[in-house]
Amino acid sequence: MLIMLTNAFLIALREIKRNLTRAFLTVLGIIIGVAAVVTMVTLGEGTTAAVKNQISDLGSNLVMVRPGSGFGPRASSAGVPNFTESDVTAIAEQISGVAAIAPVRTASLSTIYLQEARNTSIIGTTVDYFSINKWSLASGRFFTEADARTGEAVAVIGNTVKTELFGSEDPIGKKIRVGQASLQVIGLLKAKGQAGMGDQDDTIVVPLTTMQRRLGGRTSSRDVSQMSISAEDDYNSDLLISEISSLLRQRRNIQSNQDDNFTVFDTRQIAETLSSSTELMTMLLSAVAGVSLLVGGIGIMNIMLVSVTERTREIGIRLAIGATAKEVLWQFLVEALTLSCVGGMIGIGLALVFCQVLAPLIQIPFSFNLEINLIAFAFSAIVGIVFGFAPARRASKLDPIDALRHE
Amino acid sequence: MSTPTSTLIELNNLTKTYGQGSAAFQALKGINLKIDKGEFVSIMGPSGSGKSTLMNLLGCLDRPTTGAYRYEGIAVESLNSVQRSLLRRYALGFIFQGFNLLARTSAIENVELPLLYRGIKRAERHEMARRALAQVGLPDKERNTPAELSGGQQQRVAIARAIVTNPSTLFADEPTGNLDSQTTCEIMELLTQLNSERGITILMVTHEDDVAQYAKRTVRVIDGLIDHDQTHHRIAAQ
């Protein structure tokens, strides 16, 4: 049996060598299929990892409170009242486990420096905002309690804003026009990058008082559109979230039969939501790639079937010189298997190259996933066996005399 | 080598019918034939006489409908297809009118083919194939593919492939049918030489009288029966 298999392998290899071009075209489908599946899964996982990294950059014990229901793409806050500064104070004073809390007001305003202008999301907040959201400085300084108290005309800008407005110029000390006010740039935030969450570096942070007093328009109201809370290190997130919820329900006069008109969530929940959507995406793309792998397998069957007809005389010769039907069956099966396995390996190699090239381009980490490579390889081998069997069987059923007469 | 008088092949009232019922056609109607080891027999007959059917049965490529076929005492008619394959592999060699070499495959690889099925190791395989090619007069064509060889050379490669396993019987089906008269002579000389020097029994189907003359015995088949069976002295060669 072993001798027969080694023999079959040897004979199959010779056959493949004899028809290298045909062999290559045969396995092209498998190559493309395997490469597509492995690339999709690897890049998909890279994206998920990148999203998770970015969320952990937000801070692992960050809790956010927003008006309306839901967060992420399903969020809706239409017609729902904002929070007030007294809500912020109440949470800080009444909930244990809150290490720090910062009120956040956001506004999208035009920002101008010399000739450069763009719309940027402006955040009005307090000093604690930086530590709660794990921002650190690239240069300059954060604003201080004193700045906040007096509503100084100062701003801390994100890296994207710096690049867009200042290019390579040093922004510290420069004046930019935000809405109706002229603000001095005092700090530059270290970049966090982008993926999944949008560009976090496209931001300008100013003291809440500055926003209310200087920027004009609707920004002068005393509403707070969002609260950022950092919890104590050993906090129980579920407990904290439910305590904040019940306090806010009480303060916002929500009846017991009404749903919350605000949402409290922590980074863990954001992480779960975002990674479940990227994972779903990965699965979908992989399924599409899997179909191409299947088509590749059918390609192998097609070529092998054609080649049985084409090689009838060869089979006749083999049978005449003493090959058994079983040996012919094995030869064809091993040929199909070898082709699909080699195709699988080339596909994996190709996927590796694709991932190496693409991962930096779309800014995600590249990590070699042994499991998916093994699965893709095993699948291509199975494709070889399944789709190689019908032609192999047909070849082995040929009558030697008829096969020899075949022209 | 074997003694020249021992029986190699014995056919007893062998028949072969193709098809069934009203469409049935009896190609062989009862063949009785005895061939000794070391003989060189040519089987002649017009087309449709059943000589090819007889050849296929003798070569264990097909099974008789009725009758007995003993090859070296083995009851071939009761062998299954695997056993017949093994008999072909270890005892028989074939050459064909159309040479039947594997295309795009070098001469030496073609000759090695039967050895591959015998599970012979690479180095030994190579050596045996080389010797066989030298014996048929093609020591310098090992790397050539069939397309690069003349018809006569291709048939020599086919003969080398048939004798490389040292078979006791060589079946030749119109071996010179595709060759010119000069090459025909050369190929027939080679077969005669293999028969006399190595004692290989040769059974050859032909319809050319001058080719049949190389054999020591001619069996004529007409309408599925042996018409006559004649042993003669060679007129060509020597």
UniProtKB/TrEMBL annotation, chain B:
It comes from Thalassobacterium sedimentorum. One of its GO terms (molecular function) is ATP binding. This is ABC transporter ATP-binding protein. SMART domains: AAA. InterPro entries: AAA+_ATPase (IPR003593), ABC_transporter-like_ATP-bd (IPR003439), ABC_transporter-like_CS (IPR017871), ABC_transpr_LolD-like (IPR015854), MacB-like_ATP-bd (IPR017911), P-loop_NTPase (IPR027417). Keywords: ATP-binding, Nucleotide-binding, Transport. Gene3D superfamilies: P-loop containing nucleotide triphosphate hydrolases. Residues 9-238 form the ABC transporter domain. Signal peptide: none annotated. Pfam families: ABC_tran. The lineage of its organism: Bacteria, Pseudomonadati, Verrucomicrobiota, Opitutia, Puniceicoccales.
